[in-house]
Amino acid sequence: MNFESFREKIGYQPVLLGTIALLASGALALASSATSEAIAAAEAKDLRDSLSEVLPQGMADNDFLKDTVELQKDGKTVTIYRARQGETVKAALFKVAERGYAGDIQVLMAVDLEGRTLGVRVLKHVETPGLGDKIEVKKDAWIKSFDGKSLGEPTPDKWGVKKDNGIFDQFAGATITPRAVVKAVKGGLEFFAAHKSEITG
User: Does 49 map to a domain?
Assistant: First the structure.
């Protein structure tokens, strides 16, 4: 093999590789562009379904995904979705989080203008299956014990699990998990109370 033909082969390989990489990048960009709207629509539907789960039926006639206000909580931005009937704000829906046993527990809650919880659901967690996962409504009705609660009912000193002299049940072998959810919901109610005028506009 002479040097010239060897050099040609060395030059040919990077060009070929570059061309393939360019074509692959273009195909990926095209696929991403073609599916981005469908993905965004699916994400919006999932969020709307989750929000509707904590809000009593018929309480809103607006698209609360498009009626939002953003506030700061512990250095993080919280998006508040406002449920309205006509022009009147009836409830605020937002996410809060607290550290559980294995990681953060993300909670979605709806609060009416009187500061009462309309519904609470756990959106995301990594708690121990069979123990901590009882915070999921599909596994146990425990999460529904927050319905109708406020900062005055129960009194602040009773916002805890029974092991801490509170009113909420704990799970055998997994007290840290329900304790974190109780703290998250109480914190959410305190957040709503502190920012009620900004939330309701």
Answer: yes
CA-CA distances (angstroms) from residue 26 to 17, 29, 33? Answer: 14, 5, 11
Q: Is residue 35 part of a domain?
A: yes
d(CA 79, CA 8): 59
Residue length, the chain? 201
Specify whether 74 is located in the same domain as 164: yes
Say yes or no: 139 and 191 in one domain: yes
Q: Can you give the pTM of this predicted structure?
A: 0.78
Q: How is 103-169 classified by DSSP, letter by letter?
A: SEEEEEEEEETTS-EEEEEEEE--PPTTTGGGGSTTT-SGGGGGTT--SSSS-GGG-SBGGGT-SB-
Does residue 87 sit in the same domain as residue 158?
A: yes
Structural domain range at position 22: 1-54
pLDDT, one tens digit per residue, over 130-146 is 888 899 999 999 999 99
